[in-house]
Each structure stands twice: as C-alpha cells, then as structure tokens.
Amino acid sequence: GKMCHFLSQNSQPAIRGDDITVKSYKVESRITSRFCHTTVKSSVVNSGPNAQSIGFNVQIPKQAFITNFTMNVNGITFVGSVKEKTVARNLYAQARARGKAAGLVRYRTDMETFKTEVHVPPGSKIEFELHYQEMMQRKLGFYEHSLYLQPGRLVPQFQVDVYIYEPSGIASVETLNTLGEHFSGMAKLTSSKDKAHVVFKPSLQQQRKCENCTTSAIDGIFTVKYDVLRDSNAGELHVSDGHFVHFFAPANLSPLPKNIVFVIDVSGSMWGVKMKQTVEAMQTILDDLTMDDYFSIVDFNHNVRCWSEELVPGSTIQVAEAKKYIQNIKPNGGTNINEALMRAVQMLVKASNQGMIDPRSVSMIMLVSDGDPTVGEIKLSAIQKNVKKVMREEFSLFSLGIGFDVDYDFLERIAMENRGVAQRIYTSHDASDQIRRFYSQVSSPLLRKITVQFPEDSVSDVTQNHFDKYFSGSELVVAGKVLPSESTTLNSFTTASADRLDLSLQTEADYLELDAALAQQQHAFTGFARQMWAYITVNQLLVERSLAPTAGHKRKITQRILTLAVEHQFVTPLTALLVESEEGKERLLADSPNDPKQGCCAGDCGPSQVPDWGPSPEAPDWGPYACACKISVCLCLCPLILRPLCPLGVVVNGQLVGSKRVGVEEKEKEKVNTYFGTISVFYQPDGIRVSVSTDRIDLTHGRNNHSFTWGATADITQDRVKVSIVKDSKVMVTVDDKITVMVLLHRVWKKHPTHVDFLGLYIPNNNQYSSQAHGLIGQFGQEPEVRVFNLHQGADPLKKKATMQVKGNKLVVTRGWQKDYRRDKKRGSDVFCWFIHNSGKGFIDGHYTNYIVPRLDSFLALPP
C-alpha cells in the first residue's frame, strides 16, 4: 500500500484511525547506569470495511536519539537502519523509481513527536515498534524519566515497564502522580539495593474516564524519579564492554559566592503575561541571594538601563529595592540585546578589576528574552562575536528564551560558547515556575575548574573532561574507551576548586566486575557504556559543529558525526533512517528536510469551514490582477502540543486598489493596474483581526480597535497574536507562534500621475500548517506535478513561451519575472517564473471569481 511517514510537533493520540482495534500498546524502558533504552510497541487491526490510513505517533524527549523503527504489515516486515543521508536518499529514490511502495519519515530536531501513517486494506494487521535512547540528566538532585502516554482509546493490553539497574545502589525511587488522581497509586513499584521495577498496567475498566465511558483517561506524562547512592565525593567509575563512564556529583560542600547580572528584555513583545510571570519569578530569585552574593539588573528595550551601575551585595535592603524596580517596569519599544549584554559584561569586568569580588566566586549573566534584536546591532553572528570577545574565561552566560518568536538556536549558541546553557521557557500558566526552576539549577555553584584525568595510555577518545563549574544537584559525566592493559583496574583523578579549598580526588573500577554483574541481570541494558560514550560524543560534536569557525573545520566534524551515528545507529540531523522490507523491494525514509515547511503536520486538521490546507510557498508581490476586489489567500493552523482541538482557522485576505486615473480617455486606452492596498490576517479562535493598509495598522478584537501608524517601530501582543511593526518598512504578524505573514510597505512619490502606495505580501517558508491549504497561494502548498516543454520564442525576445502540463491541462505560459523586495526594498531582486494567462484558468482550482470574498475576515466557501 501507499505509506507516508513524518514527524510533527503536535500532541496527538498514539494510534489514529476509524474503525480500528488496538490490541496492545506496550512501553518498556531499561535504565542502566543513567542510560536509557526505550521501546514502544503497538498491535493494530483495521477492523473497518474500507481501506484507510492508520497512524502511530510517539512523543519522545527532545534529547533522545531514535535508534530504530520496524513495522510489520500483513506479514511483510520493514526494518530500519541508520545511514548517511545521501546513501539513504539514493536507496529511497531507487525504490520510488521502480514504482515500489515508498514513504517519508520526516525528522527535525526541534520536534518531539515521531509520527507514522500507513494506508492499508480492511482486515490488515499492523505492528509498530519504535526504539530510542537517551542519557538521564540529573537536575536538582534527581533523575526524571518521562514517558508520554496518549493511547487515544481503550486498549485491552496496555502496559508500561520501567527497569532501573544502578550498580552503585539506588538511594530513592518514586513515581510522580503526573497522570492525575484517576490513576493514583495504580503504578506498582518494587525495588532492592541496586534494582527497581515500576509497572503501570491499568485494566480496560480502570482506563475508562468514568464507569460507562468509552474514552480513555490515560492522557499525559508518566514519570519515574530516582537518585543513586554515592559513597564519596570522588565520583563513580563504571567500566563495561571496553568503555568507561565516570560520574561526578559531589555533595556537602559550601556554595561558592556568586556575582550575577540579570539582563531582562522589556521590549513591547514582553507586555502582558510574559512580563508578569518574569516579575513573579524574579521576586523569588532575588530572595535567594545572600550577603555573600553580588548582583545588579540590566533591563533593555531599544534603550539599556541599569538598576545599579555597579554590583551590590544581596542584602535585604538592596533586594527589596531591586524587587520594587522590577515591579514598576512597563514593557515597550524594540530589542537591543547587543548593548544590554555589553553593559552586563562591563559591570562584571569593572567589579573584577576593582577587586570588589572574591576571586573564587562565580560570575554569571542571566539573559531573559522573547525576541530577536531589532535595535542597534541586529546581526546575530556579530552579537555572538562581540559577546565572546569581551567575556572573560571565568564568566558564564545563561540564556532563557521565552516563547517561540525568539531565535532559540542563537540563544543556545551564545550560551554554550560562553560556558553556560540555554533553556526555552514555554509561555503557559507556569512560566514563572519554569524560570525559577532553571535558576535553581545554577544558583548554587559548588566547584570551579573541574578536571577529570586518567593514567597515560589507559584510555582513549575521552569526551569533555574539563568543566568550568559544577552546580549543586547536577552531575558531570566523562566517557571514553578503555585501552588494552595488563592492569585489571582503571583509575581516575579529579581536581577542582571549592570555597576556600582545592580538591584532588581519586577513584578506581575493576575492568571485569560490572560486565559480570550485568550478565546476571534480566532487564539491564548491557550495551549502555558503548552507547553512552557515543551519545555524549555525538552531542558534543553537534555543539562544536554549530560553533565551527571555518567551513573546513565544520566538514571534518560532520564526517566524525556521520561515522559515529551510522556505527551506533543514531538518527541525528545529519543521518537518515532507511526502513525497508526484508527483500529490500520496498523502502521508506526517515529524513531531516532542508525545507522547514516539509515538517508540517499533514492531515491533522479535521473538517472545517475552510478547504484543505498545505504549506504555502513564498508569495511574490501580486501586482496587476483581474479585478479590483478582495482576493483570498488562506492558511490553516495546526493544533499545538497544548491544544488538542482542531480546526484552528487563519485566513489572510487582500483588498486591491487601482492606480490613479488620469482621465476618461486614458482609462479607455489603458487597463488600470491593481495592487494590494490592504492585507488582513484574521485569527478566528480568538476573534482577532490585524488589518494592514498603506496608511495604518489596525488590531481589532471584538469591539476594541487599536490603531498604529507606520511612523514608529512597535511590538504588540494580543492573546496569541503578535504584531511587530518596523518603522516605514514592514509588519510581521505571528499567530500562535506558528504562522507568520510579512507585509512590506511600498511608498511612491505622492505627485506621481498614476502610481499609488501599495503592499507586498510574503509568506515565510518555515511556517507550519496542516497538510491542507487553499486560496490563491495555499492551494500550491503541496505542489502539483508540472511539466514544461515546447520552449520557443515569443513576440518579445526576452519573454519565451512554452507549454505547461498541469492538473490534466495544457496551458500556454510566458517566461517572465517578479520582484522580491525583502532584501533590497528600492530595486528588489528578480525572481524568474512562468506567467499563466487567462486569470490562471486551468492552473488554479476553479475560476478566479471563486476567490472573491465579501469581507476581509471571510473564509472561502468549501468547494462542491
């Protein structure tokens, strides 16, 4: 049958389809020495009378690597293998060329859902099986293993097993009641000194939302939380399968004093909930400061302000003053990240030079921002370079990116390059808790300058073994290969600086002891050390690659990642998972699309008042058109993780204006050109409309209407709609952090006899919609098959003619070009294209008059 596979960010039932029987849904995780291998299996039957598409969706942690996916359809087994992208694509292309069943698994690193769909006849039996691996991260003193359980229906055989084996011993283990009171106490836990087993196996009746309900109450995250026993501060050294892993998580040390500058974005886009929750979080964070700590606050929009030009001690009086200052902030204006970070670094440098701060203290900057720079230095690479240049080796930068408008990759790069980490904060009711939790992870530094070393010629291929800081409740992990040796033990030596003292610690491990113990365990993951070393190495190389200074250096790192990912079967942004039948006749591909729009959630939106949707191509300026009326360009928004209801409609409509009319005689001689005079974005769920015209921008919500001029840069947020105005240039309208529409303003000489001011419409490629779209632009989201032939000279030698075969029609087309004004607003750049005559007849669906709508907030009628 026909198959298609892709990843999406949507939270959906694990099994999708009508008239299907889900026989079983089983999840098993094996955690050994903090490394986890998870398997998700499901058995499904198409019990309906018709052929249909059956979906299998698994939400996985962002830090996990998929290692395999297999599928059995009516006895035909498809087995996965990770290959270099080019190799996998070529094999996939060969299968398609032979006309064999071929589909696509889309893989993108910023998404959490693995999503599969298979089209099968009635009576078909399908078995899905997905494998992924991850390293447990210790935060605030615990490891948390989370499994996303959303079967979407009652399942006769539903079971979750989590097996933990920690050779050093388990200090504590518990299941968190994250699935709700309905399942309170239903997970069974058994544990011994070094093993634990959690089983969650609700019966069919227990799964029901109520006694006679046919819907499942299982919908959420199942979490197991644990920590291990630690005999000493020297750490644990595990040797297995020719590899070693050293865990270092000392406790009972006095925290180092810290010097911290909070850099807070107070631009217009932070107005409302984002600022309220940031202020809320800062109240608690400031209370955490002690007299040994020094701090200040830098807040910035288009300007940069300092609460105090110098660092001050965290006394009760100073903290109270700082809290008042933050409470009185009123967000507005642009975003000058570069100047704010420069000021923060200068503050730390000045304090250091003047001997104000303890040389053993930890100096850090904590940046909180929700958007890209719009004022001052706006080039991200230049900001990154500027910050790195002034940051001292002993300073760290931590970045918090609020929402989805922010360029999170940039915040992550700038943090990692300056000995810090980044965290995305989701704009939900608990955003202040997320900020506080992140701060808690870095608020108690215990050690500086940590180095883990091994005797010469005893190990090779060691992962990062020098760390700038160690924070209470976290863990440092070093892994590598063990070289052949006459000795039967491996030693590690750790040095670090603590408060008022220097540490030198030593520990050892027997080469054979752990392998012998693993052989006795029924549910241990025996290959953990080898996979953990590869997991850490690949992740560190991906960071290095993102910071590589030259193309040559980047190529070398890429090759190392490819080699490791293929050898250890990790699906990374640089590898692909080829899934093929045992005979190799039918192939499917797990790939990371170059074009972000391909990662969209195809087929997610149900019936609505708008036609089928799809990713929209970039829109040129639609200049002259057939009639002076309202033209509809429609988009459909997919549901986000926290929004299960669908459809969610967005419509983009344009109203045309004609050129100036010189006189009746002139009008009779020439056709009047028409242009976009108004472009409207209407978000139906919130009832918000943004209307952009050549003289103003209106934001309407119910009876409330707010008008803004083109004469000032501004950021406005209303519920889930954000409007960014760049003075006399453009407007960006972002809906629910998922869809962006850009409108460019074109001014002409006011005394020109015919020309009028007009607008240009651009739809970015990285928007994400459902697989269905319509309207003049939206209908080409999934491009039709087009063949152009019979190229020949036309009346104009610069404009060749040809025949285009599309949608079963043969059309005469003319070669021409349109202007793209995004980079060069005055002259524009030429975009070559084919012009379709007769108002697009035979190319667009239906007649052009079908796209005329009565109002700027009207949706298209459903096609017959």
TrEMBL record:
Family designation: Belongs to the ITIH family.
UniProt cross-references to InterPro entries, sorted A to Z: ITI_HC_C, ITIH, VIT, VWF_A, vWFA_dom_sf
Secreted keyword on record:
yes
**This protein's UniProt keywords:** Glycoprotein, Protease inhibitor, Secreted, Serine protease inhibitor, Signal
> Where in this chain does the record put each VWFA domain?
259-442
**Signal among the record's keywords?**
yes
* Subcellular location(s) per record: Secreted
Q: Name one cellular component (GO) term.
A: extracellular region
VIT domain: which residues?
A: 6-134
Offer an example of a GO molecular function term for this protein: serine-type endopeptidase inhibitor activity
Q: What is this protein called?
A: Inter-alpha-trypsin inhibitor heavy chain 2
Q: Name one GO biological process term.
A: hyaluronan metabolic process
